[in-house]
Amino acid sequence: MSPPTMVQKPVGSVGNLKTPVVRLDSGANDTQVSFADWEKFNFAPIRESTVSRAMTKRYFNDLDKYTESDIVIVGAGSAGLSAAYVLAKNRPNLKIAIIEASVSPGGGCWLGGQLFSAMVMRKPANLFLDELEIAYEDEGDYVVVKHAALFMSTLMSKVLQFPNVKLFNATAVEDLITRRDESTGELRIAGVVTNWTLVTLNHDTQSCMDPNTLNANVVLSTTGHDGPFGAFCAKRLESLRPKSANEPFELGGMRGLDMNKAEDAIVKGTREVAPGLVIAGMELAEVDGSNRMGPTFGAMALSGVKAAESVLNVIDIRKKQNESCYGGSQN
């Protein structure tokens, strides 16, 4: 058992430590603080293979469970995690897989902008902060969280505690699973094609390594604006041509910064862009040709809330469609 981390009066022993765990001789000039008798401290014994089995067994059990998901969220940034929080809280019966290309989830939300730590959110995004119980300074029309990392770490912690959510990080989405209705010609998104991110980045340096797949009734993409993995689902959707030749799907391309226009446009525009594919956050700016907003984060959180609403409004329809083809759901 690890030692305690609060300075207090002696409370006995921890685990196999027989000496007082904490000593604080108040009033003495040479007061010393001791959390444990470190000379006698030791961890419980373990075999290396036990560590490996503890990790791999759980990972592959999760992979087996979530290869048939209700919802796959692509991108674990502020919009994706905000959506995951709302979805998991409101529908604990749904299996939600989050795919994040980076080793560290959180997207660009660890800093408030450039190298500055404070995070600005315009009202009414403070209501989402209240939901998460994150403190902020109220500046009238906007609020300030003392560090963007406080917002992200709190949100991430709450999301990952839900029993119906699994985060697969260091994993990239390489393609979309599609179904085309033979009678209407409508193209529906029915899951994602995945690979280890390091493999995805090195396809040109080695022989082909085929990917893996996760089926889902709805895919929610929040991969941000154009970049190495940015706007991936939107760009792939454009090449898939989900609409007829007379009405092709074309990306609008993100426009220059205009905070006042951008945040409203992102939240209002969050929607199911194609059957089975909801897009939120800055990826939506690439779809609609709306402005970027820069270092203000209210739209990211509330776009996630709107995305969760959009998902819940279509998931039963998409689930029924998926159950009618290729053997249906194998949950």
What does this protein look like?
By secondary structure, the protein is an alpha/beta fold. It has a domain at 70-117 and 163-326: FAD/NAD(P)-binding domain. It is 33% helix and 22% strand. The chain has nine helices and 15 strands. It has helices spanning 48-66, 78-90, 126-132, 148-160, 197-200, 232-240, 259-269, 283-288, 298-323, and strands at 23-24, 33-34, 68-74, 96-100, 119-122, 137-138, 142-145, 165-169, 171-180, 187-196, 212-221, 255-257, 271-274, 277-279, 291-292. The strands form four sheets. Strands 3, 4, 8, 9, 10, 11, 13 and 14 form an eight-stranded mixed sheet that branches. A three-stranded antiparallel sheet has the order 5-7-6. It has a two-stranded antiparallel ribbon with strand order 1-2. Helix 2 packs parallel to helix 4 and helix 7 (259-269) runs parallel beside helix 9. The longest helix is centred in the last third of the chain and has 26 residues, at 298-323. Residues 1-28 have low confidence and may be disordered. Keywords: Cytoplasm, Iron, Metal-binding, NAD, Nucleus, Thiamine biosynthesis, Transferase.
The portion of residues forming beta strands comes to 15-25%
**Share of helix among residues?**
25-40%
Structural class: alpha/beta
Order of helices and strands: EEHEHEEHEEHEEEHEHEHEEHEH
The CATH homologous superfamily of the domain at 70-117 and 163-326 = FAD/NAD(P)-binding domain
Question: Averaging pLDDT over every residue, what do you get?
Answer: 89
CATH topology of the domain at 70-117 and 163-326: FAD/NAD(P)-binding domain
**Sheet bearing the most strands, described?**
8 strands, mixed
Rg is 24 Å
End-to-end C-alpha gap: 38 Å
Please work out how many helical segments DSSP would assign. 9
Instruction: Count all strands and give the number.
Output: 15
What's the oligomerization state? Answer: single chain
Name the shape in a single word: globular
**Second-tier CATH architecture of the domain at 70-117 and 163-326:** 3-Layer(bba) Sandwich
So what's the CATH class of the domain at 70-117 and 163-326? Answer: Alpha Beta
Low-confidence stretches: 1-28
Catalytic activity: [ADP-thiazole synthase]-L-cysteine + glycine + NAD(+) = [ADP-thiazole synthase]-dehydroalanine + ADP-5-ethyl-4-methylthiazole-2-carboxylate + nicotinamide + 3 H2O + 2 H(+)
Protein name: Thiamine thiazole synthase
Subcellular location: Cytoplasm; Nucleus
Subunit structure: Homooctamer.
